[in-house]
Amino acid sequence: MRIELERRPSHSALFSVLSPFIALALTVIAGAIIFSAMGKNPVHALYSFFIEPLTEVWSLHELAIKAAPLILIAVGLSVCFRSNNWNIGAEGQFIIGGVFGSVLPIMFHEWNSVLVLPIMMIMGMIGGALYASIPAFLKTRFNTNEILSSLMLVYVAQLFLDWIVRGPWRNPEGFNFPESREFHVNAILPEILPTSGRADWGIMFAVVATILTWFMMRYMLKGFEVSVLGQSARAGRFAGFSTTKMVFFAFIFSGALAGLAGISEVSGSIEQLQPVISPGYGFTAIIVAFLGRLNPLGIFAAGLILALTYLGGEAAQISIGLPDKIARVFQGLLLFFVLACDTLIHYRIKIHTAERANVAGEGA
Amino acid sequence: MTLIEAVLLTVTTAATPLLLAALGELVVERSGVLNLGVEGMIVMGAAIAFVAAKMTGNPYFGALLGALAGCAFSLLFGFLTLTLVTNQVATGLALTILGLGLSGMIGESYVGEPGVQLEPISFPFLSELPLVGPLLFAQDIIFYLSIAAVIGVSWFLFRSRLGLQLRAIGDSHGSAHALGISVIKTRYCAVMFGGLCAGLAGAQLSLVYTPQWVENMSAGRGWIALALVVFASWRPLRVLAGAYLFGAVTIGQLHAQALGIAIPSQFLSALPYLATIVVLVIISRNRRLTLMNTPASLGQPFVPDR
Fold first, then answer.
1. Where do the structural domains in chain A lie, given as residue ranges?
2. Spelled out in words, what is the top-level CATH class assigned to the domain A19-348?
3. Which residue ranges does UniProt annotate as crossing the membrane (chain A) (predicted)?
4. Best label site of A140, A355, B41, B44, fewest CB within 10 Å?
5. Number of domains chain B contains
6. B281 — contact with chain A (CB < 8 Å)?
7. Count of alpha carbons within 13 Å of A49, Cβ hemisphere only?
8. Residue contact B290–A290, C-beta within 8 A
């Protein structure tokens, strides 16, 4: 058997819409196979993984909590990827954003004001943007591969957070636990609907970022610049767009959103700094960006779906006794299927059996 | 054994997985494919090798299965990027994410359990030589394989006809295709070799380096290996040098921690990653030189027109 691709004359609008859904369906099927292989009833397992978290109001709040950082980061990354800049270090920018935004509530915790929270958010964005500008600087100045440099910085950020929480920022009244002091109430992102669950304003940040980015990509010159430089740097230069400035713009934009996600997570659901503040949001957001086809509106939907895998992972652990790592497996599989199904948009797939392949060979 | 011998021995142990993984990726990239899934293949190799060795009590069987697991995983990448022409960067990342998750699941019930260690094989007489004896002739099989692989890959790439074809594909897949060289088939072989090497590197981690299973025990080595390939400007002997340099940095960092140097341990642990960035900057500064050395088709999708 041989698989052959035939380029479509124009890309298929039908598969553009369908491919994420086909990918999702394939992921569910693969999931059923994995669950069966682990000796669980696949229907029951799939139900508790994908459906159960959606049946109660409080868990919808949890979904929003998990989706908010994913959407924020992925929306930023989509601009980056579209401009052909590969920022793989959003996880690090998320962490540094969280640390930067925590300067005020930890070092100046006596200062109580309604201004604390907005300043924290801005500081978080600055932190993420600064951290992201390191690979951008190295790329534009020294031609350094941004994939590797941004990724190495993730490990550095993780170790930095670990150090600051165990060292200088350790809570003096914390019984020697490796965590910072708990944030003052003015430094905590308020909940949206406190009566029904603990979702905070982070989800609103995600909504706003999605809409603004969508507007920018669709109606503003900057968005056009991103697409042109991403598709052909040469064509972009003829149009007078600067590649160097675009590298910085893309990294700072995505870094700032990742940083905002970081400080929202720290001030919204954790309420203090801990040695680990992210269950891999920065990496999962890459999947979200692709599943959403690098379109902010698609990313919003994709963020909700990937958030579900985190909840499903917790459910799998509690109700069916499977390791929570299964969430990562689902995420990886989903990205594989998304990428594979995207091929359908640009190509027709022809499967030749051995016999037919010979005939085709003779014909050629 | 003297202290110097002991330190050098730990350097080789730290360098071997980097060397193997980078060498495999070097062949992959020479064929024009960029596989960012090295981290995922290493960690899968480590998990499968550990479990297989533990279940059978035979570390050699474990190492073999670990290598095969890396290879099988690379086939998944190959099918997507070569047959379905998906984006190589994104597919490689998917491989890493899947590998970290799957290995965590497989290893979950083995956390904290003592593993099976690959014992060193001593060559009689040679291993009694001062300094070089224990260093070169009393090591585990994966060390010997890594050195053999350097020689083998060097010979293959620059002295054999197939190696020439592979490099031709990496530099211009269009021309190679026009000459009648099978681009896709060769790339599949290269990708599988890369997977085999990365899987073996993982096996080294869980059977030699620290004979136990720890989640995410690859700890970024796959990414460092990718950087090493750039560092080595796609040449096997320079990969050898780079891997040992990084092994030395890693070990130096560990010894500094053990000596209780007044720098916080996290800063020392960050050293290999920072060193990677510094090295990348130094290497890539000269744009002309990098362009000259980089396989020209690297990362480009290839669809043969019929």
1. 19-348
2. mainly alpha
3. 12-38, 58-81, 88-108, 114-134, 146-165, 199-217, 238-261, 273-292, 299-320, 326-347
4. A355
5. 1
6. yes
7. 31
8. no
